[in-house]
Write a structure and sequence with these properties.
The structure holds 2 protein chains of 2 kinds. Chain A has helices spanning 31-37, 91-94, 110-114, 119-128; strands at residues 9-10, 15-19, 24-29, 40-44, 51-52, 57-63, 67-71, 76-81, 103-107. By secondary structure, chain A is an alpha+beta fold. Chain A has one domain (10-108): RNA polymerase II/Efflux pump adaptor protein, barrel-sandwich hybrid domain (OB fold (Dihydrolipoamide Acetyltransferase, E2P)), CATH 2.40.50.100. In chain B, the strands form 5 sheets. In chain B, strands 10-11-12-9-3-13 form a 6-stranded mixed β-sheet, with helices on both faces. In chain B, strands 14-17-16-15-18-19 form a 6-stranded antiparallel beta barrel. By secondary structure, chain B is α+β, with helices and mostly antiparallel strands. The longest helix of chain B is centred in the N-terminal third of the chain and has 10 residues, at 33-42. The A-B interface holds A 38-39, 41-42, 44, 60, 62, 64-67, 90, 93 and B 28-29, 32-34, 220, 224, 285-287, 289, 307-308, 310, 334.
């Protein structure tokens, strides 16, 4: 069973969200997703300033095996991207909930984050796959 | 649950991620496919390839039978040498690609696992009129030890007889010692050997090799290594609808006095012209993938195998394109067009970049 931190929220397309006190949120992909992808070789991130609706395509992670779209889990404006991933995409494999975060988004509505899947809901979804 | 090789429990214990591979439960990697790839290019790694099908062909008519069955000519090699060949249908399509080892009293063929049943059926069907006995050897395991340090590591773990027999093997040569066969062949573009041995002895050899510093590698790295080496994968780069001429296997065809299956069709195709399999290189971001459309100066083609090349740090692919294509081409990737360069594979040999533009 893969690691699913309880303090995060999740979406079915395997992104996680961590809401900060300042109303921004970090977005990444789950351990389950990075394991299924295998070694990542490229990460394509959005530009800072781009505004997403929930569910918009917001980037691509590409492994030796496959390419997979990343979807914005909540609506908001991108305020930072993880520039280290340009040269070190493997951070997503080695530390998907930490140094392997993808981008930071200023969320329109913090309640939207609360409405996403809890760790146990997400675990149940993976189980059912 | 699929078929399991004698090494299955060892793979699981070593943390191998097990996937279905043509009906077999095989390790795709043991943690990182990229690290396993690099270790084969730089030191020594090993692959369990016991899922592959070993078939012995013996009898007074064995040579004549193989002269008819295979598009390459088994009499071109002496005893103790191996040969790569296609086995074709009447239309010249590739039923399978294989290695044939010419032994003192018989021939040994190693064919793909995914094509086992149709291969054996075809071989049986074509044997009419020849004094041959065709016997599958499912009890044999096979371990490929590959990389610049592979042969030195193997020499350390073999007993004296086997070490002596294998020490001076030339490329594509092999030694038979009792019921083991040690061949200087492989599917990675590196030096190394493939060892066939009775299945019940496989675990001991594997563990001895681990102690000698050889890293277990999964089938994921095997695929990126073979693609960098410009070697075809059956089912991706060719199949029954594709002839060797269209799969960069022209060098395996011997049009001499003998009448091998598929010859007539190939001769017609050679006259009429045919598409060809070339290499593609893309240095910008992104990974070329099988089935993407390729647009060359001569028309449309398709990628048959594509990957990120861990050695080069960018993407490479094999693609079937119209005859005479050269220069650059466009590949349709994820809704946009990217420019690639056409090259002659292999991309990497013995750890270094070797490709040339077409």
């Amino acid at each position: 069973m893969s690691n699913i931190p309880t303090e995060l929220r999740y979406v079915s397309s395997h992104e996680w969200v961590r809401l900060e006190d300042d109303g921004t949120a970090y977005v990444g992909i789950s351990e389950h997703a990075q394991e299924a992808m295998g070694d990542l070789v490229y990460v394509e991130l959005p530009e800072v300033g781009v505004v997403f609706a929930a569910g918009d395509e917001s980037g691509v992670v590409e492994s030796v095996k496959a390419a997979s779209d990343i979807y914005a889990p909540v609506a908001g404006e991108v305020v930072a991207i993880n520039e280290r991933l340009e040269d070190e995409p493997e951070l997503v494999n080695s530390d998907c909930y930490g140094d392997g975060w993808l981008y930071q988004i200023k969320v329109n509505d913090a309640d939207e984050v609360d409405g996403l899947l809890s760790a146990s809901d997400y675990a149940a979804e993976i189980e059912a796959e | 649950m699929g078929h399991q090789t004698p090494l299955y429990d060892v793979h699981v214990a070593a943390g191998g991620k097990i996937v279905d591979f043509g009906g077999w439960d095989m390790p795709i990697h043991y943690g990182s496919q990229l690290e396993e790839h690099h270790i084969v290019r730089r030191a020594a790694g090993m692959f369990d390839v016991s899922h592959m099908t070993v078939v012995d062909v013996r009898g007074a008519g064995a040579t004549d039978y193989l002269l008819r069955l295979l598009a390459n000519d088994v009499t071109r090699i002496p005893v103790g040498k191996a040969l790569y060949s296609g086995m074709l249908n009447e239309a010249g399509g590739v039923i399978d690609d294989l290695i044939v080892y010419r032994r003192e009293d018989d021939y040994r063929l190693v064919v793909n696992c995914g094509t086992r049943e149709k291969d054996l059926a075809w071989m049986e069907k074509q044997s009419g009129g020849f004094a041959v006995d065709i016997q599958e050897r499912p009890e044999m395991a096979m371990i490929a030890v590959q990389g610049p340090e592979a042969r030195a590591a193997v020499a350390k773990v073999l007993d004296a007889d086997m070490a002596a027999a294998s020490a001076d093997l030339n490329v594509f040569s092999f030694a038979d010692v009792s019921d083991w066969m040690i061949a200087r062949t492989g599917y990675t573009g590196e030096d190394g050997v493939e060892i066939m041995l009775p299945g019940e002895q496989a675990v001991a050899l594997w563990q001895a090799l681990v102690e000698a510093g050889v890293a277990p590698c999964g089938l994921g790295a095997r695929d990126t290594l073979r693609l960098e080496a410009g070697m075809n994968l059956y089912g991706n780069d060719m199949d029954e609808s594709v002839s060797p001429l269209e799969a960069n296997m022209g060098w395996t065809l011997v049009f001499n006095e003998r009448d091998f299956i598929g010859r007539e069709a190939l001769e017609k195709q050679r006259e009429a012209g045919h598409s060809e399999l070339v290499g593609l290189v893309m240095e910008e971001k992104g990974v070329l993938r099988a089935h993407q459309k390729v647009i060359t100066d001569q028309g449309e083609g398709e990628i048959t195998s594509g990957t990120f090349s861990p050695t080069l740090g960018y993407s490479v692919a094999l693609a079937r394109v119209p005859a005479g294509s050269s220069g650059t081409a466009q590949v349709e990737m994820r809704k946009k067009l990217n420019t690639v360069t056409l090259v002659r594979a292999p991309f990497v040999r013995n750890g270094v970049k070797v490709f040339k533009p077409v």
